[in-house]
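As the next step, I selected for study one protein, both as residues and as discrete backbone shape codes, as given directly below:
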Amino acid sequence: MVGGGSFSWSPKESRSRALLLAPVLCVWGTQRIMENRRRRRSGAAAERLLTAVAFLACSSQMPVVDGNSWWSLGLTPIQRPEMFIIGAQPLCSQLSGLSQGQRKLCQLYQDHMTYIGDGAKTGIKECQYQFRQRRWNCSTVDNASVFGRVMQIGSRETAFTYAISAAGVVNAISRACREGELSTCGCSRAARPRDLPRDWLWGGCGDNVHYGYRFAREFVDAREREKNYPRGSTEHSRMLMNLHNNEAGRQAVYNLANVACKCHGVSGSCSLKTCWLQLADFRRVGEFLKEKYSSAAAMRIGRKGKLELEDKRFNTPTPEDLVYIDPSPDYCLRNETTGSMGTQGRYCNKTSEGMDGCELMCCGRGYDQFKTYKHERCHCKFHWCCYVKCKRCTSLVDQFVCK
């Protein structure tokens, strides 16, 4: 009751306001505890109350999505094992975001962790590239949950993120094997392709995509498989969705790997060729999964506790396809509850009719126009021998930003 009137908040509004106030209460409660301990001003009961307030407020800011917390390895540099005390525990205990199963794998395969971090980083960067012109642009929020609360929604975007991250781990581990960085694997031992000409040699040191696939399956899926949700529950359906999309990402890297060859012979006559298995460029993997994102299948949990199509008229998704269980938000406005960053302040293309166009990107709110200087290399000339010299050109261009 304020000023003779009354007010009430809906549960959704209450949650949003609590999230906004949490950082303030966290800092205030922590400061009060330290001050009271320093001055010995409060009794035990008062200090317990302050501690409870601070704990609840601070814990509300902790990452609520535990399914993607291993991605934080991509944002925090991992020092090589030899930089730590001999033994696995010191390294693994310093890596946040690992589940119990992943931590055990860390202790067994300590030298793999740097490359898991590299794979996560590669996946995050590729996600940001593929969605750079869309309302949701795969922005990282913090170093703990990485993408924040938006990953709580089992949407198409979440499906892509799980797939590209798993793909990144396969890519990084496979390449590390070829480069001799890991103690448990080496060059690829893939069988000779049947369609390879007889006079071509099958050998060289190929990317060990078989080992990369198997290890990524064990590590990435460990977090999901150790959960014990009731069959048919919402949490169980989300776990199945995550596992399916993890597999789709791994399949993309595995299936896009191809045969690469090198010519041998006098004066480049190519009378002999040596061939090996080679990973596809990761940009190609990202583009492939982006196509799967566009055609992702809407699923629901069935009576038998398995995912099934919402619309039976469509084909059953294969292990290479992406699946989702929740509709996507519009990502137009900032929303603390869903984790949407909104599109205010985003650059847009006035002449485009696609998702990067100002009409769609700004969600009909309009846009501001301003001029800025653009610097680029121009009038480049090749000089013998052997360098290219360019001039630096400056031009005044129009920029458009969503209101």
